Amino acid sequence: MTKKFCVSLTYAKNDADKATVAFVVANAAVASDKDTVVFLSTEAVRLCQQGYADDVHEESFAPLGELMANFVKAGGTIWVCSPCFKRRKLDEGKLIPGATIVGGAKLVEFLSDGSPCVSY
Length: 120
What we know:
- This protein has helices at 16-31, 64-73, 82-87, 104-111, and strands at 4-9, 35-40, 77-81, 99-102, 117-119.
- It has 120 residues and is an alpha/beta fold.
- The chain has one domain (4-119): Hypothetical Protein Ychn, Chain: A (3-Layer(aba) Sandwich).
- A five-stranded parallel beta sheet has the order 4-3-2-1-5.
- Helix 1 (16-31) packs parallel to helix 2.
- It is globular.
- The chain starts with a strand and ends with a strand.
């Protein structure tokens, strides 16, 4: 059985509920001693920018920024889709801690051993 887990996220403020739940699940995975990656693509790449998630707080959940910070502190990794990032003309100098811009091949390599991946 693999010790890896992936959460693929395509939403940000355009569906804060899905973005929040994705990081709740990612935190559960990393707390379960899984090598956990959150892959941000399409609109979700906006979450990699400092301050963007600060005002996202879904009822009954911790604030999204706090969930993201806790995920990274616990050893989780955030990968940001390079073409999606470039398409939105985001700023590499404003990446949140723990975020790395990667190409799709990095995700394919991570998943190639049959690692589970959930998508939001």
